[in-house]
Amino acid sequence: MRTISTQYGELIPQHTADDLRKREIMPVEYHASGGIKSVPLEEQTVIATSAGDIPAELVSFHENGSLNRIFPLNGKLSGYWSQDDEAGLSVPITLTTPMGVIRVRILSAGFYDDQSLRSLTLWPGETVSVPTPAGPVVARIGVSFTRDGRVRSLEPAKPVAVPTPAGEMTAYDPDAVGVNGDANSLAFNDEGKVCRLSTTLSGLIAVHPDGRTHRHVPQYRESLCSEAEREVVPMRVEFDGDEVRIAIRPDRPATILKGKGYVFFAEPFLPQLPDMFTGLRCSV
C-alpha cells in the first residue's frame, strides 16, 4: 500500500470510494516545487499539531512541508449524504490555542509555516468566547490569530459594541459565511485596535475638511424570501491610518476617504426589520 512520508508521519492517501460520503477518489496534489500540497486520507488519522492532536481526513501543507490546514472530516455532501449526516460524525476536539484551552467541533484548523496556529473554522452552530482587545466576544464561524498569538479577527455570534476611531460601533455580519476562519468581519490591527468591522446597527458620519457632512448607513435590498420584504445589507468599515473605506454593498466599490482633516462620528442605526439579527438569510 502506497504511503506518503511527511514530518507528521506516514500518511495513507485515499484509494477507495463508497456510495455515500466519498463517492470519488480525490487526487494527491503537489506544489510546483514537487512537495506535497494536499492529501485526502483513506481513513481518519490523528495528526500531532501545535494546538494538540487533531483527527484528519484531509490535510494540506506549505511548501516547506509544515502543516497548512487540517480537516477532521472530508465527506462530500449530496442527495445521498447531507450536512446533518456529516455533523453526526463530528466530535468536539480539545485544542490549546492563544485564547486558552478550548473544546469545540471544528471544520478545519489553519497553521502558519512555522507551525503556529493561524485560524479555526468552527462547525455551524458552534461558538467560543474570545478574549479580544475590545473585551470578551462570543464568536461563531471562525477566529484567526497573528503569528505571535494575538487575536487578528473573529466573526461575532451576536451584535457587540466595540470601540473604533469614530466612537463605539456595533459589529455583526448576518451575511457571514464560514468558508474558513482566516479572515472575519471584526478585525484588529497590530496595536490591538479595531481596523475592520461589518455592521447593520451603526452608521458613520464623515465631516470633510471643507466642513461638508455626509452620513453613511447600511442599505436595504429586496429579500429573496418574499418580494414584499426587505432586509438590511451589512456595511463594512475599514480604518487604516488616515484612510477610511466604507462599503455599503458588496457589489459596489467602497467609498475611500483619504487624508488628514476628516472627522468621523458613529451613530446608532436601527432598521425596522423583524429579523435583523438572523444569522443566515435566505438571500445568502
How would you describe what is shown here?
The protein has 284 residues and is mostly beta strands. It has a domain at 1-91. 2% of the residues lie in helices and 49% in strands. It is built from one helix and 25 strands. The strands form six sheets. Strands 3, 4, 5, 6, 9, 10, 11, 12, 13, 16, 17, 22, 23 and 24 form a 14-stranded antiparallel β-sheet that branches. It has a three-stranded antiparallel β-sheet with strand order 19-18-25, with no helix packed on it. Strand 12 and strand 13 form a beta hairpin. The longest helix is centred in the first third of the chain and has 5 residues, at 83-87.
Number of helical stretches of at least 4 residues: 1
Order of helices and strands: EEEEEEHEEEEEEEEEEEEEEEEEEE
Which regions contain 5 or more consecutive residues with pLDDT less than 50? 276-280
Largest sheet: 14 strands, antiparallel
Number of strands: 25
Secondary-structure-based class equals mainly beta
